[in-house]
Amino acid sequence: MTTFLVFILTIIIVVGIHEFGHFQMARWCNVKVLKFSIGFGKPLFTFLFGKDQTEFLVSSIPLGGYVKLLDENNIETSEKVKKIDLKRAFNRQSLVKRFLIVAAGPLINIILGVLIFSFIYMHGSLEIKPSIRGLPVLSEAFQQGLRVGDEIVSLDGNKIKSLEDLDNALKDHKEAFQDISFKRGGQVIHIKNLLWTDEIKVFPYGLPILIQSVEAGSIAEKIGLKVHDQMLMVDQIPIKDIPDLITNVQNHWLMSYDLTIKRENIIQYIHIDKKLFESKVDKKRIGISLGYDEAIIKAHLIEVKYTFGESINKSLAQSYTFFTLTLKTFKSLFTQKAALKDLGGPLTIANMASSSFLEGIFPYIQFIGLISLNIGILNLLPIPLLDGGHLVNYLIEFVRGKPLSNKNMMLSQRVGMLILGLLTVIALYNDACRYLLGS
């Protein structure tokens, strides 16, 4: 029951804000709004509001929503159009106004996501210290004075408050840093002109890697891996961190090899035969989720707060990263069979929403920001029937100087309906497999 109620709350918030974007922009553009609905299908309850007596509805199928505008092209409403309202019909508005009304929905979703992430950054959260975990004695960094346990404070004047900040600063940085500041024993020390190499290992490098969960029917389950097993070696190659483990597993894909683990303080060797990969060739993963010892992680956590400006910048950067990831994921839906298995529907959203809600108010707010950003980005994709598809049509109209013909519009809508229908069926099938059939 909790899962259902949290799902409904999530839909009301995220879909409501999306439709409000269309609704409010239509009002600003003096376009008459006939209906504002959360959900589809049979109305559960309805009321009239505003000078236009807009009909507000909550409908029985909580999988979206819509705003219905006065439009002469809509057969259902054309007979009811009063002459005094003709100038307020959506189809009679300028190209700019129509573009703004359609774009407002996804844009307000994206804005909500950015603001939520900014709020979380400003409020503060527990994050991992940006500390050095491993450093060879013969390395240049060691020779210049860097030591294991040092906490990075800034790189070339850019503040480093968390491991995430450090990872972002190091990403794609190929040149030497002119000034590296770090803290040791309460004292801030500086190093000049140091090239940050892979030899410099940061926390949590070297920590025990533990299995958090094992997927049903996976290779991991078949070979007998269990929760809390510590991963030590892949084919006698010592494992230092999770990315290292993932790389080694992928490098040994379709090969027979041995895993070395520790279970209840006893070293064990588990053989993986290459025959097990025959039905798992679509993904280079054996079906486990990994993590580090929570007690050790907690000892390296600090509360990090950011200023308003810092929060906005970090939120925008995070949103851009998520935007590129979403586009890459959507592209993979049409190029990789495996990606289709990751597609989730309403049950997936409900499960994630409920899990985050039970963790606390801030995890749930963060989930709302994430799902709002996701809906905003997806609706901007150039697929007919989605907002992005309509925006592409308006751009074509701008270039051609006239809208697409009715024939072409109908054809594009059928293509869009086919794409969305297929994705919906796949998502619902995946949901059924995960949560109803347990596979």
Tell me about the largest β-sheet. Answer: 6 strands, antiparallel
Strand-pairing-aware structural class: alpha+beta
Specify the helix fraction band: 40-55%
What is the string of SSEs from the N terminus onward?
HEEHHEEHEEHEEEEHEEHEEEHEHHHHHH
What would the principal axes of the Cα set say about the shape? globular
The end-to-end span amounts to 23 Å
Number of domains: 4
Rg is 27 Å
* Multimeric organization: single chain
Mean pLDDT equals 84
Uncertain residue ranges:
none
What percent of residues are in strands? 15-25%
The helix tally amounts to 14
Extended strand count: 16
Summarize the structure.
With 439 residues, the chain is α+β, with helices and mostly antiparallel strands.
Summary tags:
439 residues, Pdz3 Domain, 6-stranded antiparallel beta sheet, 14 helices
Task: Set down the secondary structure blueprint.
Layout lengths: L1 H27 L4 E17 L4 E16 L5 H4 L16 H29 L1 E4 L3 E3 L5 H4 L7 E5 L2 E2 L3 H8 L6 E8 L2 E8 L6 E2 L6 E6 L4 H5 L6 E5 L2 E2 L3 H10 L5 E7 L2 E7 L15 E5 L1 H6 L1 E4 L3 H26 L3 H5 L4 H14 L1 H19 L7 H14 L5 H31 L3
Antiparallel strand pairs: 1-2, 3-16, 4-9, 5-6, 5-7, 7-8, 10-11, 10-15, 11-12, 11-13, 13-14
Helix pairs in contact: 1-3, 1-11, 1-12, 3-9, 3-12, 3-13, 9-12, 11-12
Question: Can you put this structure into words, describing what you see?
Answer:
It is built from 14 helices and 16 strands. The protein is 46% helix and 23% strand. The protein has 439 residues and is of the alpha+beta class. It folds into four domains: 2-93, no CATH class; 127-202, PDZ domain (Pdz3 Domain, Roll), CATH 2.30.42.10; 209-301, PDZ domain (Pdz3 Domain, Roll); 305-436, no CATH class. It has helices spanning 2-28, 75-78, 95-123, 140-143, 163-170, 219-223, 242-251, 294-299, 308-333, 337-341, 346-359, 361-379, 387-400, 406-436; strands spanning 33-49, 54-69, 125-128, 132-134, 151-155, 158-159, 177-184, 187-194, 201-202, 209-214, 230-234, 237-238, 257-263, 266-272, 288-292, 301-304.
